[in-house]
């Protein structure tokens, strides 16, 4: 056998071995990663939603998966929705989340919660946001744009993060991880029941830098362009809160909104219309509890139909969405349900 043929065989064997190793790593990672049952990054459940049945998609930080209740929005308007938010989700992550989300759904409206502009990257949350994405180019590009070079292996080979779980994971958990994905009855929403009463506004957490804000602003421009290209209505927003923004943040945000061809709404300025009670409706400075989220979601349902002109496409399984409403109504919310206004 010639030297040239031996080298070619060696290269082929190396490629085959590499593919096998990557396949084993992906399978082992899927088996060992904890299933997401709330608190964002609900990609597995999102993938189980029937294709092209969602009218509205929520993106952004944990505020988006705490404040917007899809079952309530559906009950009030017939609009189907899902939260693909993530903890401290950056605008870069939101952009790639949107690109990936559009592979199976084509919503009429994206509600993008943008407080991630005011937070710098937190590597532990970046790992969670990215490693729960489906395998593919969007996940790879998001990792390459987000991770520092020294940490990139944790994104390319996430088994390095979760390998120790084999000591505690059960066979039942492994079977669930490797089994067929199921729809999430809460459609990506996370229930927060505790109440923190506030007598006055307090400064909210801001960790942004000039560099991180600029990076987020560029990603936001890509989101705007993508929505325009896909003929999807985009509304950027901040939710009701008891945390004040710094003067520097307000100035940077105001200049950014003026440069973008998409509407921005600070829903905190409409808190009286929404009916938010500072003493009863907040989990913490920036997150509504379930009472506040229900009020906000009822109000958003009307905002979507009346201000955005969005109407239900009617492609979803109405019986299943009504079951989502029933499931929501039966949740232990830590207190009596708010009366309809």
Task: Give the spatial strand order of the biggest sheet.
Answer: 2-1-3-5-7
3D shape: globular
Q: Tell me the Rg in angstroms.
A: 22 Å
> Looking at CATH, which topology would you report?
Rossmann fold
Number of H- or I-type helical stretches: 15
Low-confidence segments, ≥5 residues, pLDDT <50? 336-341
CATH class: Alpha Beta
Terminus-to-terminus distance: 84 Å
Helix content: 40-55%
Q: What share of residues are in beta strands?
A: 5-15%
Total separate domains: 1
What structural class results from the helix and strand content?
alpha/beta
Average pLDDT reading: 91
The CATH architecture designation is: 3-Layer(aba) Sandwich
Order of helices and strands: HHEHHEHEHHHHHEHEEHEHHH
Extended strand count: 7
- Describe the biggest sheet? 5 strands, parallel
CATH superfamily (homologous) name: SGNH hydrolase
Please give a handful of descriptors for the protein shown.
341 residues; Rossmann fold; five-stranded parallel sheet; two-stranded parallel sheet; 15 helices
Task: Write a compact overview of the structure shown.
By secondary structure, the protein is α/β, with parallel strands linked by helices.
List the helices and strands and how they pair.
Layout: H1 3-32, H2 43-48, E1 56-59, H3 62-67, H4 70-77, E2 81-83, H5 91-101, E3 109-113, H6 123-131, H7 137-146, H8 152-156, H9 159-162, H10 171-178, E4 202-203, H11 210-229, E5 233-238, E6 243-244, H12 247-259, E7 264-266, H13 271-274, H14 290-306, H15 318-330
Parallel strand pairs: 1-2, 1-3, 3-5, 4-6, 5-7
């Amino acid at each position: 056998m010639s030297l040239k043929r031996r080298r070619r065989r060696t290269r082929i064997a190396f490629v085959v071995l590499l593919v096998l190793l990557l396949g084993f790593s992906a399978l082992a990672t899927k088996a060992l990663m904890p299933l997401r049952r709330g608190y964002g990054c609900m990609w597995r459940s999102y993938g189980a939603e029937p294709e092209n049945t969602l009218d509205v998609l929520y993106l952004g930080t944990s505020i988006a998966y705490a404040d917007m209740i899809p079952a309530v929005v559906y009950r009030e308007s017939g609009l189907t929705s899902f939260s693909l938010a993530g903890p401290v989700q950056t605008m870069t992550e939101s952009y790639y989340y949107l690109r990936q989300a559009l592979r199976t759904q084509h919503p009429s409206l994206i509600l993008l919660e943008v407080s991630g502009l005011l937070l710098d990257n937190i590597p532990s949350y970046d790992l969670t946001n990215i490693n729960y994405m489906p395998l593919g180019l969007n996940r790879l590009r998001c990792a390459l744009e987000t991770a520092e070079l020294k940490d990139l292996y944790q994104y390319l080979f996430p088994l390095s993060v979760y390998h120790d779980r084999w000591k505690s994971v059960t066979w039942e958990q492994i079977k669930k991880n490797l089994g067929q994905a199921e729809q999430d009855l809460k459609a990506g929403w996370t229930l927060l029941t505790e109440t923190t009463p506030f007598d006055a506004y307090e400064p909210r957490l801001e960790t942004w830098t000039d560099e991180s804000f600029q990076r987020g602003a560029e990603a936001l421009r890509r989101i705007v362009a993508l929505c325009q290209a896909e003929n999807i209505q985009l509304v950027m927003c901040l939710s009701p809160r008891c945390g004040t923004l710094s003067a520097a943040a307000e100035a940077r945000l105001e200049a950014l909104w003026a440069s973008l061809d998409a509407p921005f709404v600070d829903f905190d300025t409409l808190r009286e219309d929404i009916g938010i009670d500072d003493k009863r409706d907040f989990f913490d400075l920036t997150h509504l509890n379930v009472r506040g989220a229900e009020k906000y979601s009822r109000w958003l349902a009307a905002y979507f139909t009346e201000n955005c002109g969005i109407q239900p496409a009617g492609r979803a399984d109405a019986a299943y969405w009504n079951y989502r409403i029933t499931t929501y109504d039966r949740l232990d919310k830590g207190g009596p349900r708010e009366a309809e206004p």
